Amino acid sequence: MRVLGLETSCDDTAAAVVTSDGSILAETNLHQHKVHEKHGGIVPLLAADRHLQKIPLVVRETLEKAELRMEDIDAVAVTRGPGLPASLVVGLAAGKTLAAVHAKPLIGVHHMEAHALMARMGAEQKVRFPYLCLLISGGHTLSLVVHDVNHHSVIGQTRDESVGVAFDRVAREMGLPWIDAQVGGGAGAALEQIARDGNAARFPMPMPMNQSNTARDPGFSFSGIMSHVARMREQRAFDPTCRQDQADLAAAFQQTATTHLQKKTALALAHAANVLNTRVTCLVVSGGVASNQAVRQCLSILARRNHLPLICPPPRLCTDNGVMIAWAGIERLRRGMLDPYDIDFIQRWPLDQLKPYAPRESS
Ligand code: ATP
Ligand code: FE
Fold first, then answer.
1. Which of 222, 201, 216, 205 is nearest to 263 (CA)?
2. Boundaries of each Gcp-like domain copy (predicted)?
3. What interhelical angle do 243-274 and 163-173 show, nearest 10?
């Protein structure tokens, strides 16, 4: 089976063709960094406008690279939500039209479920249900048990900002560019790079949710560290033009954020075992922040302590891409989970609103 996947939920116009054995036949990902850079953040209408301009060419280029025509595709998968409405609409209209015109099955994909299922792609199927997944991205920070496709138990989520936003905001306070051409990624990637030369002990930071009433809560919080760094900047506790200050601050922030993720994931593992009575097969970490090596390192220690394998998709498949949508499409197609051609986008779509899949009785 070959599925064409389209992703336009935020600021990447992406498409890919993936097979049911997990081979990527082609992928295209057009970032919009340049469009938003001068605004210091994503401007939703500009993002939608860019998707509108680029999606036809991105789809065509992907099919050309795969040396396939629409006739050779078994289904079209497209991100249905959550995300920016104007951006989602563009991809969804493209996907629905392609599917309807070519009489192909249509599969509406939950963007966060696609991040969570990404780790299962591959012929050897290393990742088996149920597993504990830490989803750390620009819009979300959550831990969940993935029981199956469409069946998730969310354990912890952020009370305020996502860890990706925290990386981006702290990088900005430190004077790092929103997009670093040399690092080739967002501010979070630039922060990781500079933290390598830093001394984390120089700027100690408060550990979030470490009080007696929050220490056992598997939720996350990043607003405290963000305002701590903002206050440091106001009080001129560091010089944003001094490279060593930037490096030390980056290392301190990264260490605090990473340790917080580790502590709360440890609680999520305990919750899965003791409250949900679920023996997970492994720990999966996905979403843009999962491309951070310090985060991977810290969570690999936790996984080892719990005798679980740690599985992270390769960095380029942790951030938004078309491959994860095509793969989530394969997972759904295998189970016969198809959608009508008139589905709409869903802007806010909590993962645990998805209903466990019950195969239809054959008559
Ligand atoms: P969501 O999936 O929640 O809708 P999104 O799709 O915008 O959000 P992703 O593309 O999964 O988010 O991830 C983007 C985030 O990942 C950004 O906040 C970016 O700074 C962060 N990020 C990317 N690379 C790194 C890195 N190496 N270290 C830390 N953060 C990183
Ligand atoms: Fe994402």
1. 216
2. 24-327
3. 170
Exposure class string for 81-93: b at 16+ Cβ within 10 A, else e: bbbbebbbbbbbb
Spatial neighbors of 273 by CB under 8 A, at least 6 apart, are 279, 280
| 187 pocket-lining for ligand 1 (C-beta < 6 Å) | yes
Q: What is the Å distance from ligand 1's center to 234 Cα?
A: 26
Q: Would you state the structure tokens that stand for residue 341, as one six-digit string?
A: 């051609």
State the Cα–Cα distance between residues 271 and 26, nearest whole angstrom. Answer: 39
Ligand 1 within 6 A of CB of 254: no
Question: Three-state DSSP class for 362?
Answer: coil
Sign of CA dihedral 30, 36, 41, 47: negative
Place of tokens 């954020």: 257
Distance CA 235, CA 274 (A): 45
- In this structure, are residues 246 and 252 in contact, taking their beta carbons and an 8 Å threshold? no
Please give the model's pTM, rounded to 2 decimal places. Answer: 0.95
Q: Report the nearest-CA residue for atom 29 of ligand 1.
A: 188
Tell me which residue has its CA closest to atom 24 in ligand 1: 189
Give distance in angstroms: CA of 30 to centre of ligand 2: 14
Q: Return d(Cα 359, Cα 67) in angstroms, integer.
A: 34
pLDDT tens-digit series, residues 215-240: 999 999 999 999 999 999 999 999 99
